[in-house]
Amino acid sequence: MVWVAAPHLSNWIFTFQKFRLEENAVKYAPRKVYIKESDGYVELSYTDFCRRRQADQTYMDKLFIPVQGCLLEVVREQYTDFYRDKERWRYLQKLDTKKCLLSLDRFVDDEGNTLDFIADEAVDIAEAVTNAAMVDRLKAALSLLSDSEQALIKAIFFEELSEREVGLRLGITQSVVNKRKAKILAKLRKIMES
């Protein structure tokens, strides 16, 4: 891990998650390191940065943040803000995993572009609410039918069997199934209207 400490925060040791430095053995070395100088940033390779760090102790006091595979020197306030935001993001991801919450980050395509969600204007909200209310009333009415009536309705409308197939299952003719179905539907209509 790259250990970077500020002189006024000698008790604090800051680490970079992706960039580990253990006795000059680097795992996931950054492509470049950008050092702040009086008129801007100076670009260094990571090996040049390591050499300078060993030769000049002031490099030990510099604070860096990872940006697109590079290390960028920043002031303490930027460094603190970056890692505070990063910790907040980790916390929110952990919370999302535990509680199965829906994250807005999931609304991106494979290329990282934000997906647009537009309400379908063809759907009539009033009609959808009316249909939902009718379904609730139908469920309540179905529960008032006898077991044999429920079995017949279930077979025809939920299992999508033909009247002939239902007749074969129950050992009755198709015409008897049709008459029973008509009686049951009339009974349901009457229950739902009351």
Present the secondary structure layout.
Blueprint: E1 3-4, E2 14-15, E3 20-22, E4 25-27, E5 32-37, E6 40-45, H1 46-55, E7 63-67, E8 70-74, H2 76-99, H3 125-142, H4 147-158, H5 163-170, H6 174-193
Parallel strand pairs: 5-8
Antiparallel strand pairs: 1-2, 3-4, 5-6, 7-8
State the major sheet. Answer: 4 strands, mixed
Order of helices and strands: EEEEEEHEEHHHHH
Shape: rod-shaped
Task: Bin the helical content.
Answer: 40-55%
Taking pLDDT < 50 over at least 5 consecutive residues as the criterion, the unreliable ranges are 1-26
- What is the mean pLDDT? 77
Rg result:
35 Å
Strand order of the largest sheet: 6-5-8-7
The number of E-state strands comes to 8
Number of helices: 6
- Strand % is 15-25%
Distance between the termini: 75 Å
Number of domains: 2
Describe the structure.
It contains six helices and eight strands. It has 194 residues and is of the alpha+beta class. The chain has two domains: 72 residues, no CATH class; 69 residues, PhyR, sigma-like (SL) domain (Butyryl-CoA Dehydrogenase, subunit A, domain 3, Up-down Bundle). The strands form three sheets. Strands 6-5-8-7 form a four-stranded mixed beta sheet. α5 packs across α6. The radius of gyration is 35 Å and the shape is rod-shaped. The N terminus is likely disordered.
